[in-house]
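Now for a chain:

_____
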Amino acid sequence: MASNTPWSPNELIPIARAGSREPALAVAAETLHLLWSRDREIWHSYRGASGWSEPVRVAAGEQPALAATPDGQLHAVFVNQFAGNAEICYVWWNGVAWSLPQNVSHTTGASRQPAIAVGPDGTLRAVWADNTSGHSAIYTGRLEEGRWLTGPLASARGSAPALAITPQNVAYIFWQDRLESSQRFEVFCTFSREGGWSMPENISSSAERHSLQPRVATNIQGGCHLLWQEELAGVFGIQHADRRPNGWGAPADASATDADCRAPRIAANRQGFLQAIWQQGPTLFHRVRPPDYDAEWWAPEVATDSCGGLSEVAFAVARSGKTHVVWCGADQASTYRLYYLQRQPVFKYTTFAPVG
């Protein structure tokens, strides 16, 4: 890679032993926190000036999802087995220690693929997929006074849910589900409104092509921005759509290539600029988009050209603007390890001393 790249070299995360997978990231008070799973246990480390802290076991489980509140507390949901059934569990970190796990889902079916988000008022929401009804359905929950209030979303079958909350406290939930007519996956959305949730809406709207793996971010302007994988001619591209006052904008190509693209992730910096990453072969690409409606994506840039074997990726942008990526990759012996890289802020700030 060129010496003037804003990206750091790949760094093998030494404290995450071989077999580590499923990274999850959150930034609290400019400190980067990492959760991951290994041998069905959840581990935690944070990155300080001297590198990664010694890992701490959080709980038994897998599929962690992580969020941070403005006061610096960490909140996580994950999957764990209770009496042979997969349940969604919740823990929180007060800066010193993790709490004991709390069962969130309490269903007779298998609950998987959790996500968690924090509202501007500090309210925690979670979402996951559950097969209690005999098919995969989308469930959601909200933490109130130490107790999770949960239930299925109306008319929301599917899997791979994603969740985000705007600064105006509007929660958006996305998922993928097959159309009965074509058996192709589409991406659907519902959002919170007074008294409940909106009716599900088909966002990808491409009945003859698979639309998969929704990922979402909100920004300071109140926008909601969605990425997903869209199949075309046997390969996948990355599509983008945003929520507008009169509904969803038309999907647009974010990857701008005929090559196969996977694993999209999206986040926003404090100015509201969207930052997206995705995998294209052994290369991880990064692209920036201004927050305005119909804004053009900036030219794609290479974050790393050596992420072959990538299976999962986590992505976060700190308030300072620094971009953090942790990805899981398999080496030639098919052993999974975690790798880290970071990008300088998209905008550099200059401080001027007052004259007078």
Q: What stands out?
A: The domain at 13-343 is CATH 2.120.10.10 (Neuraminidase).
